[in-house]
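Hi L.,

You mentioned the student needs an example of a multi-chain input paired with its predicted structure. This one should do, with 1528 residues in total across all chains.
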Amino acid sequence: MTRRQRLREAGYEIEQISGTGPEIDPELLKGSIEGFLGFAKVPLGVAGPVRIRGTAAQGDFFVPFATSEGTLVASFQHAFNAMNRSGGAAAICGNEQVSRAPCFEFASLAQAHAFACWLPSRLTLLQEITARASRHCRLLALQASVIANTVYVVFEYSTADAAGQNMVTLATQEICERLLLDMPQTPLSWVTESMVSGDKRATPMAFRATRGRNVSAELVLRAKQLSRYWKTDAETMERTWRQGVNGAAQTGTVGLQGNVANALAAIFIACGQDAACVAEATTALTRVERTRTAELYASVTLPNLIVGTVGGGTYLPTARECLALLGCAGAGMARKFAEICAVVALAGELALVGAMASGQFAHAHAAGGRKERGSTSEGGGA
Amino acid sequence: MTRRQRLREAGYEIEQISGTGPEIDPELLKGSIEGFLGFAKVPLGVAGPVRIRGTAAQGDFFVPFATSEGTLVASFQHAFNAMNRSGGAAAICGNEQVSRAPCFEFASLAQAHAFACWLPSRLTLLQEITARASRHCRLLALQASVIANTVYVVFEYSTADAAGQNMVTLATQEICERLLLDMPQTPLSWVTESMVSGDKRATPMAFRATRGRNVSAELVLRAKQLSRYWKTDAETMERTWRQGVNGAAQTGTVGLQGNVANALAAIFIACGQDAACVAEATTALTRVERTRTAELYASVTLPNLIVGTVGGGTYLPTARECLALLGCAGAGMARKFAEICAVVALAGELALVGAMASGQFAHAHAAGGRKERGSTSEGGGA
Amino acid sequence: MTRRQRLREAGYEIEQISGTGPEIDPELLKGSIEGFLGFAKVPLGVAGPVRIRGTAAQGDFFVPFATSEGTLVASFQHAFNAMNRSGGAAAICGNEQVSRAPCFEFASLAQAHAFACWLPSRLTLLQEITARASRHCRLLALQASVIANTVYVVFEYSTADAAGQNMVTLATQEICERLLLDMPQTPLSWVTESMVSGDKRATPMAFRATRGRNVSAELVLRAKQLSRYWKTDAETMERTWRQGVNGAAQTGTVGLQGNVANALAAIFIACGQDAACVAEATTALTRVERTRTAELYASVTLPNLIVGTVGGGTYLPTARECLALLGCAGAGMARKFAEICAVVALAGELALVGAMASGQFAHAHAAGGRKERGSTSEGGGA
Amino acid sequence: MTRRQRLREAGYEIEQISGTGPEIDPELLKGSIEGFLGFAKVPLGVAGPVRIRGTAAQGDFFVPFATSEGTLVASFQHAFNAMNRSGGAAAICGNEQVSRAPCFEFASLAQAHAFACWLPSRLTLLQEITARASRHCRLLALQASVIANTVYVVFEYSTADAAGQNMVTLATQEICERLLLDMPQTPLSWVTESMVSGDKRATPMAFRATRGRNVSAELVLRAKQLSRYWKTDAETMERTWRQGVNGAAQTGTVGLQGNVANALAAIFIACGQDAACVAEATTALTRVERTRTAELYASVTLPNLIVGTVGGGTYLPTARECLALLGCAGAGMARKFAEICAVVALAGELALVGAMASGQFAHAHAAGGRKERGSTSEGGGA
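Structure written out for the whole complex:
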């Protein structure tokens, strides 16, 4: 029985993915695309199940990856198998907020300082305005920084289960216009977004103030599985990672991670997320550490995960099927989806470090990206 | 006549994109995907033409974007129109190289230092080895850094028209194994990639040593077009950008750019590129400057553009059609494709800054992402 | 009349600086130095007066610089003269706080998450503990970040007029020990400072949450003075700075500034501050912008200025005299001192950009660092 | 016998430091200071000896620290003692070079590209010009980056035993003026330093291309000494450092180090170095790792150490005595001095991590900075 058949028997709809469903009505796409010509078709593979012991995500999950990078799905399957044999991964999605950061330029530092001192007194008013204007968007906090005659303000919002970038843009526009009515001094100029929010670029700021969802995943890999799956041990994994950490520290990169971009790009494209946000989601922190009992502690923290289960491209037919495959379609599912993303990113980090530790980094690429491979001995059983 | 019809009349094949072509033979995907289930279908819109006066890319181009972010394609169309009326954009792709960065850990600093001193003497030998092992991969240079008992080596390669990440991984594996045969001292451990290369993450290193293709695009926008398309002037655009620059400087981000991730993610997905590389391509530098004659000089430099026109996902049916739409399918086209990418990124930056300068940042998002829009008054004419 | 005589006539004590005072009693140094051998004597020059229109610093100030970099004091004198002729500089010291950032590692992500959720409930208790333990140290806020099984906590304190690093270390030690008594779970390990505070290293974090004193200085330089002092104009100054900004953006540096380290190192050594904190004070943002009337707006923002007017080395004889020269000796003077520091840093930035704009960057170094110079035509009049 | 007496008996001159020498002739200071008023007197303590097994620095060294931070010298003494009992530290100074980075702005990208392609052909000519103009300065290499219409050039020089910043400024000025005579196109503007060199600010660039001296120090600390000196073990030290690494990674700092600024600021002030260069010297990489035999491997790499033993403030009386104390006064001593700096920085890192690992971080500060202390049980014996 093929994987498709098994997933169908398990009740999953994959008609659009497998190309057997009805043609997509272009009317559906209004608001998502202009100059519409058709669809880019990105190969979609499934790995899994992976066992997740999260707060919102609990159970065994088949994960869809949209990619054309050979061996990528296989290496996730490999890591999932190793993880499952160690009991799966834990995950918790903590804070959730998205920011917009307008700036206001005044005639002088004195005026700027006065505005920055006055602004916090308006928080309640601005919260009411935001709540009136949107069903889902809530203003949580604001923070002002004086850069000589200019004040940069970070407004932090919650956006329910949407990724929320448009929502917070609209809210901030409204807030700014309201502020202009009674600020102590009129600014010479202002813009809605001053590149402080971190939108579409990696910055370390998310480590201090979550951007999107803040989620961690962790697990302890048993020595036996390290040996079985990567012919290595915890000490070698730890050393390999530390060599990478010291390498990364020479480059001025943001955060500390291996290739979470691989995992997230593939899931984002599959699940109708904004793939440009992969840039900022690389603000991540991976840990790979030997425990006292010679097992391997590994974790990934993603403090800047811009994802949603409503809005954006989530309603598109194949994205909808992918989200449904994860049990994440629709409202109330963003935390769950974030936890799954973190676990998958963790699997990717383990696959990377495991391959390097076992000296198979190049061999894996050589074997996979070029020619036919035999079937994996286990997993991928759907 | 619809856009599809016009493109077909102009001789472009868009059967796979528009869903009227034959079903894709799964055999074709061997080596690109595992756990194959079908395809993620990402809406594909076209904007253009945009006039490019590049070294490799010359003429008027229709650009495919795979995205579900509403208004994205429309805002590029808007910018293309403004750019065309100012004569189009210039572009030059300069350096081309991709790196791998293994590290070797020794018993002592003295041994590491000795290895670093010895290594350059092997360059010619390693170049021969690389050339023998691959038709396309050439070792250009190597550079060693001593971090106490560990030497981090950056090998720079040319990879012809392929993105080349796998190619350089294989070459580096071979080089490392050859080095192990006669290095002065045997390392205690070594890995093929030590996170110094910048693979899948933004680092400023590409500004000093190109990663992928290094390409710049520029144009001078006439005051009349600024007024016409964004109801603004060069002074306001310059100030808006400078406010953003000072904003970005507060965040610890890499490079200096607005949202090149938007442009590149959409083109990468359309054209079969590795979308995870959007993370590193945000290592970019945008400039928006008033000229003495009150026109606007704008440029984008992408020193870290990992793209190819052969290999990877470029052979996939819809990717192939998109590359062909740009006249970039196959060997000999990587520079041309890189120049187009830079011009499109530049358009995106102008669209962003223009919208902010005209105070329409939120309005554009509000209008576009939510409801039907009337057709754009010009452009999009295909 | 020599400068020394003038300063003495003006009532300033400079006996220790000029070497005519009594020998320093080694007993005085207890607590400041071990293995005491004597004193490093760093040449001390004075530039000024510089006119400051600050909130705390108001008037004309002679500024002491301890340095052996030839031309440094002269270039500040030159900039002070130009600034005075444009009315002097404004300055405002806003926020004041210093952080310590312990971390707590738990057995699991779940325990870490629980601790992070519980911790804010203890804020009032911890504030009381801090207030009881110290006359000057007050706990303002705390913020916890979950990195898998480890919680990093930033405690923000006010430290009155002391720089405060030791004060916050002691307070945090006490807080941690108190927390250990009743936290929900006992951590596996913890440390008082986890390198998140930014102590002794540049990080962009201070832009979001002040570290030390947060102070801005600004002025508008008249076209006439630009021409007179640097043979340049506002447009050239702006362009020169922008070229530097685009240069800095290629390097992965923190903040955006020219050489504030020069100004701050020289003042810090003179005034008994911790010179190692120059490293973090380079987290700064300089602006150099042409106004619509072709004058030059220039500003410096220092969000990470670790300075004090009590404690540390401020009581040392020559430091005391230097602080007194600025009217900043003792309690209640830290804001004033911070504002002066910002204005001096601004002067240094103007001197740098002015020299580059006028093409005299090398010439200035050549003339000054090598041979005798004639006296400056104005200023330095003390 | 006091420390002073012992050092004198050992043949070291410390008359200026101890205040018993002749008054300094102000004539001596010409070229080093303007607006001369006298001297800032910074308390100078000595720790040592520390055993160094370097390439240039070999033997036991007494190290001078100019600081008013209580406990600083004592904590170095403590670390020196621990290091000596493990055989001392190894050190190697590798590359030595200093850069200047002018930029040239042209009318177009095409012109800029042409200049960048042409420039390398002039290398030999420029090397000859540099060699003719200076006895000590040699042009080693150049590297050009095209940022649209502007070319940023990094010129790398050797500067013998001088720190060399002024030397390379003059050389670059001369080079630029020579280039202007026959470059293919005349630039619209140019500046001698475009903030790419990393002068006075931390950037990761030095990890790829040494700035100043590139030096590493390392040692293996025996378990017995860890227990004796810090009541800890290698596993705890490693974990403590790793917690710090993961902390630093959240902040966007450059490099990976604890507090090398403390060590370097104190030595720089003592030895007549440019204290403002502490800012860039924090571009460092520290490692603290458990070995397989449960000992502790520790190292510091400083790729950006701007130091000299001739020129600058090195000739000043107390600086001269301090350099002589290290056997580093005058020509031919820069590598030796760099190796000593690295070992001292390493001692500082060990002291920091040791204090944290033993839970004494705050206690050390509390005891030292406030009140009298008994004499240390060993070391400090001079």
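You could point out the following to them. Residues 334-357 of chain B form the longest helix (24 residues). The radius of gyration of chain B is 23 Å.

Best wishes,
N.
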